[in-house]
Amino acid sequence: MISIQKGNYNMKRSQLETEINKRKTFAIISHPDAGKTTLTEKILFLSGAIRSAGTVKSRKSEKFATSDWMEMEKQRGISITSSVMQFTYDGYNINILDTPGHQDFSEDTYRTLMAVDSVVMIIDAAKGVEAQTKKLFKVCSDRGIPIFTFINKMDRQGRDPYELLEDIEEVLGIQSFPMNWPIGMGTTFQGVYDRNGHKIHLYNEQKEHQTYTLENEDFTSHTLKELIDPDQLFELQETISLLNEAGDSMDLEAIKQGKQTPVFFGSAISSFGIPAFMEHFLELAPEPQGRESNNGYIAPSELDFSGIVFKIQANMNPAHRDRIAFMRICSGTFKKGMDAWNDRTQKSVKLAQGQQFFAASRGNIDEAYPGDIVGLYDPGLYQIGDTLCGTKDTFSYGKLPQFPPEHFAKVRAKNAMKQKHFYKGVAQLSEEGAIQVYKTAAMEETIIGVVGVLQFEVFESRLKNEYGVVLEIQPLPHTCARWISNDQSLKIESTNYKAYDQQGNPLIIFENDFALRWFQNKNPDIELYEKR
Ligand code: G4P
Q: Which domains does the chain have, with CATH numbers?
């Protein structure tokens, strides 16, 4: 009797492990214009998930990238709301979590990076590591997740490849391992040499890329000399032997810990280097990983289901006015209709419908596994950071970090008759984590705080389109907010605001760092907290 149960148990676990090993969940990060949309489209195209990779140019005029689905994104040709794309590639189930590529970003971006197992970082060969990439990289490296680098636009004249690698090492503080090496650049770009596969991938503008396999790293063959300019071939040979002898070797453990990044050179626009990149990426990127909980480490192969809500999005489909909670499955199997325990509310919920995403389109699913992102219909049951478990009172993954806002604005509805809709919209967007909302102590005015200024525009546009409220936004010069434990008889400078957050906790919004330090010096007994 017991052995039968054990047998079944093992079979289930091995099936679950097979599913886990088939999955890759990652995000693509970059500075605007480095080529994130282009690369994403090409990967989707190569996977067969889309029939034509609409060029970015046409996206910016009237056709749009598959991952852009909000009105503002369409107008601006940028991706604002992190969306999810699920498809199969070479037998793997891929979950790409899209992160905004624009200058400003929100908490949404940060939290999305909490839900992935690895990251693809795109760098423009002409620009090297840019500001936005640095910020996003920091969030990833703090978590110690593997980072794969794609240096894009090799078909254009860019910076010296050595210099680009130095840039990655110095600016980001991570070791780099070039997986391939470019042969020329811009007008002289002839292709790349794949160091592990010992292959030369030849580039041509007509996109008919050919591959040539080298025996014993012999660069002197007759055929090769006919294919590649002899001077460039000689230089390549020298570089490769230098890299082999003096360069760092590939260190799988360091890659796993995010201490070494495999680097690939390519040209996304012409699909050049992408199949080879994907081949290595799928081989090296980790399968869905486990997580720490308040009851120890939970492996994805634990049979008991668990998931974490990392994003909430309302009105994804304006026709239905719905709200979706995005859950990453962390362990076990998700089954449609299953009961799950929400640790925060201490209530059981029926996961009646789960949805999978292909950017804007969705489909119902019956089963999903660790690494998968499932959209749950949310009539107000979930909050960001909620843990859902198959069994009552087992564990919780703990809250996702909340990032302190850096920009503030006073907001109100232009039309006083729209007050009710205004408050509804503000509360909704605050629950989604898109904005933080405060009420000033003196006048009860509404102040919103955001991580990136573009969120103000997103906020304005969403209130108008989804709640019919035209806003009056008055940006404030203030730059930081600090929670205080007790606001009794507290005197503050008139340039700062005393306010309350949505839960009624007191805080001070300071005009700048100087004002913050001034306050601290004058009130050494008052504790200030950056996070609530
Ligand atoms: P993003 O999502 O990271 O913001 O970048 P996106 O893919 O939109 O690409 C930004 C621009 O770079 C696009 O040009 C795109 O065609 C171009 N691009 C992407 N990959 C490559 C590449 O491998 N080589 C070259 N030469 N260009 C590439 P655009 O905005 O349509 O026009 P323009 O900026 O070129 O005028």
A: 26-284 (3.40.50.300), 291-389 (3.40.50.300), 407-529 (3.30.70.3280)
